[in-house]
What does this fold into?
Amino acid sequence: MNLSGYKSLHGLPPLAGLSSVERAAQSNWSVQQSVDRLKRLHFVLKELCTTLTARITSEPIYELKTAFSHHAYLCAEQVNLIRTRVGEMREPPLGLDKVPHAGLKRLCDELMTVPTTEGLLAGCYEIALPAVVAACRRLQQDAHPLADAPTVRIAKLIAFELGELVEFGQQAIPCLLTESTRQQLQPWLTRLEECLACAGDLDGLAPQTDLLPEPWHSAEPFVYDSEPKRDDRFQDPFNAGVNPEAFLYDERFSARDKTLMMYYKRIRELDVPEMMASILVDLRDEEPWEFYMEMIRQLWDEARHAMMGEVGFAAQNLDWTRIPINFTWSRNLNSQLDARERHGVLFFIEQGLMPRTGKRYEWEVGVESGDPLSALFQDFDWADEVLHAQIGRRWYVPRYQSLGQALSYGDRCWSKVLSQWQKYRNEGWTEHRNWWPELYRQACENWGQPPDPAALAFCETYEDSRADLQKLD
It folds into this structure.
């Protein structure tokens, strides 16, 4: 077939710029080939999303906890793209719940069960994710550029976005893996490569083998660790000696001073991903993918809010590591409630943020404070919470007869949670020291302004109230 004489008008790029006519005239592609490759990508990306989510709570390093939140969400977004595309090409049942190859299953099981952070980083970011990116680039080249243009676009998007995750791994891994650790991990990493080889690579294009590697870590089932872990910068995490909501809603205090409490409230939101991850792990087999997708988006938003607080303190030249960032909310919910009850508490809190006294009020405080960064962060924090309230109404409320009943259940669940304020102090886990005066004095020094005596004297705690200022029994 000689198409060298075929010309477009005025020499314009043909076929909407998708490809040359010569390439588009090639017919070595089919819907089935496209679907088969997409299903393999779907399986691995969904498992990676699940694995990263399951490690958020127990990962102590803050930078990794937030990165896993982001990367789990990005994997979920790619899963969504693939599910939509396969649905466009095949009628249900789509078969997306089937394991495409035992080698890929063994690979993903090993990543889920590897016991160390170093192993997870090396396995995900040096082997699994690079294999995903390479498979997408091959798919981008092999899929018919005209007939299968939507798949080409998806492959291009996934390769681009997850390529950034691989770059993150390339930067992060040398920070944590010593040469000795690398040597210890190498036999296991070789086994992961053997899993891929058994499957004919991630997309099945290489010759497949019958040599399914024996399980290593996955010889024992994965056990989720719901106990939140924090690195050493998070001092005194049981401290509930300052109630920022009480300060925030007290009309005696200035918007400028309240901004500090809002930055604290933002970075403290790190405990929301730690709790939400437990919901997603526990309900994995009880809810459809769409539930998982929307909840992982919310989880990532909450991690992003924590980083907003981090940046806010940095911009104020304040050391957030000198402030006790409390984690007892996630710890108590994870240990005292089941997944449905935890979801009820989450929904109840979200709905309480929607009235004028909630997120809108925080944004107004940020604007009034004269701190443009606070105003910006609260503007987007408010927008995110509107989305989260909608997610709750889609996935939580339908389980009840009415919105009021759903809210009542969430309130009751939160009331069941024992704050253990006295226990933590009596057993020596914390003194619940009032860290606010130290932070406030430093901020005022940075601002070149004297502290407000009333603000400096603030000393309300969480001893007998919740974050919504409701009194505890």
